[in-house]
Amino acid sequence: MTATLPSSAKVPTRAESASALSDLKLSDVIRTIPKSCFEKDWRKAWFSVLITLASVAVGSAAIALSPWYLLPFAWFFTGTAATGLFVIGHDCAHRSFAKRRWVNNWVGHIMMMPLAYPFHSWRILHDHHHVHTNELHVDNAWEPWTVESFKAAPTWLQSGYQALRGRFWWVGSIAHWAVLHFNWRKFAGAERRAVKTSVLVVAAFAAVFFPTMYFTVGLWGIVKFWLLPWLGYHFWMSTFTIVHHTIPEIKFQPTAAWSAVPAQLAGTVHCIYPKWVEVLCHDINVHVPHHISVGIPSYNLRAAHQSLMANWGEHVYVRQFSWQLMSQITRHCHLYDAQTAYRPFSSVR
């Protein structure tokens, strides 16, 4: 049964001023979500692991057996299935997979190893994103550049940024992965030690996995069975990331104007994807409740979303995944504008 709002909280309509949401605390919103949504179920958690491992195995078999003209479909399916590895690691990073921290750490490392993701560096950086969602110059997940920063950047960097915010959005997460996740010197203390451990785990995996692949299936086998599905995974990783917080209506806010409830409730997008993608990716795109509380396991996100829609639906942005949506984002949502949220690159030229 859905909880009721505390008497001190008021649910404003979208037409009311933004300050109405700003006056609320995240705890006010969390109280409206049934407690059952926060409960961890080890059967559901491990069933999600089974679904992902079986799907990756089926995809790999399809790659091995398919004629050349069906390989692109097998690669894309396997890359989508591999995204499930990341989502399980994502739950582990938020400690919503298992009750014991060591289980989350072990499973998180194992799930993310085949994707070459250092678990702890991603966990720490992603936690920063959740604390500072859509906070200009503070959020670390694909925030838009200001016009001034864009003009001041060297030409090669401008070109790269235009590509990643435009027609090559689908490789953006590769740049994010390569630039941010392997340098443990950016961290300090216990975090640095944890990140160094995760980087070494990925390095050890690569030192065993890739030579073994090379001597058994050759260089083409590495490309065929790992690289191309990995690129398929990054297609979804890039797409999910940019869509989660990027439509023309959603603004990044400078620190002085930023507040948690508008950022977490109305600063992200509930995007509906094809059912097979939702199943293989464990509902990672039921994203609004995840930003209200990272403690909600992926298998409870839909129930939490229904509660949020019942209590706060007028503030939630819902979109259907389509090429029209991606075209809108990649043609318009480029540079930060305090008044209109975004300016396209063409306005700067």
Task: Give a short overview.
The chain is mainly alpha-helical and 349 residues long. Helices cover 59% and strands 5% of the residues. It has one domain.
Report on this model:
The chain has 349 residues and is mainly alpha-helical. The protein has helices at 19-22, 26-30, 42-65, 71-93, 101-112, 119-131, 147-152, 155-165, 172-180, 189-244, 260-265, 275-280, 288-292, 301-312, 323-332, 345-348; strands spanning 145-146, 269-272, 317-320, 335-337, 341-343. It has one domain (19-348). The longest helix has 56 residues, at 189-244. It is globular. The N and C termini lie far apart (54 Å).
List keywords for this structure.
single chain, about 350 residues, mainly alpha, 16 helices, about 5% strand, disordered N terminus
Q: Strands of the largest sheet, in order across it?
A: 1-4-5
Radius of gyration: 21 Å
Sheet having the most strands: 3 strands, mixed
The tally of structural domains comes to 1
Order of helices and strands: HHHHHHEHHHHHEHHHEHEEH
How far is it from the N-terminal to the C-terminal residue, by CA? 54 Å
Number of helical elements? 16
Output mean pLDDT: 92
Strand residue percentage: under 5%
Helix content: 55-70%
Overall morphology:
globular
* Unreliably modeled segments: 1-17
Structural class, judged by helices and strands?
Answer: mainly alpha
Number of strands: 5
